[in-house]
Structure prediction request, 378 residues.
Amino acid sequence: MILGVPKEIKDHETRVGITPAGVKALSEQGHRVLMETQAGALSAFADKGYRLAGAEIVNEADVLWLRSQMIVKVKEPMPAEFRFFCEGLTFLTYFHLAPLLDLTDALLQCGMLKSAYETIADDTRRLPLLIPMSEVAGLMSVQVGAAYLQAGSGGRGVLLGGVPGVPPALVCILGGGVVGTNAARVALGMGACVTILDLSLNRLRTLDEICNGKVHTLASNSYNVAHATKEADLVIGGVLIPGLSAPKILTKKLVANMKRGAVTVDVVIDQGGCIETAKPTTHSDPVYEVNEVVHDYVSNMPAAVPNTSTLAMANATLPYVMKLAQLGVMGAIKADRAIRTGVNTCRGMLTCGAIALSQNRPWQIVEDLPLGKNLNHR
Prediction:
């Protein structure tokens, strides 16, 4: 198969879809990898390394897209890339389609097969390709929040860990999943007072054990959310339902009741955000204020640490890329249940129930569609 890895064009998206190690593994299996020139430069992977691993360096994005049977990216395609969409092209990336109606329309109109890393689920219903980026984003969220708590950045002027005689900052984490767990680790390490809210009492018990009783755990309900966020200096949003738009846990009214100069960081902004005042921001223009509460909702936060993020992502995604390339799309869909869960659009139909529910569209399971033997040949 011919795989194409374009340079990302989303604002300050510095990650790359495949590392030189991945290129070597694919090349050894007889596949061709086309890398757009400088695609990995901002992740500290030079063209020379890709070339030595067996990739062909392509100078023009148009040529790469035209020649490729499978495109491997990091983030969802931007409108400027919609013109490359065509039937017979397979597309792997983090899409987070639920809030992106225009992109969904473009994918359905061309009939392209799109596999979303964030909906691939293993036998335990975990999301193995989303977890690494959730880990990075969870760890980063507290670092970012601590920076914006400084007075010069619009915050309350609070030091996360306090000092002797002065209490630490209060950090409230909505959701006790991968994001919440990693955010709690950093916040505790910086000396903050941490509260985590989650619907699952079993998850709260696990978090209490993991954190050796150092975090406050609360059942997530409207009363507890209102009380915890009103007192908080920093609120981290990490509530995700795979494929669906994130539920709005922190409402506009609750944001209005927060402390002036408090900071919110919504890590699930890719799925629409779990804070009602959320709107996606960029690395170029990361924050805005609502009711004098600082909002940081950069939709590709892990791009701030691209070398770490790319390596973590590639460790998880490469086995799936390899299987799709080796078996072909049809063969991989038949052979691997996890890959089937990742297929979101195919032959002009949505094939993910959660996205269909979020966008109020019809859908079919991918096995019921007439895939054809030549799905990944153009």
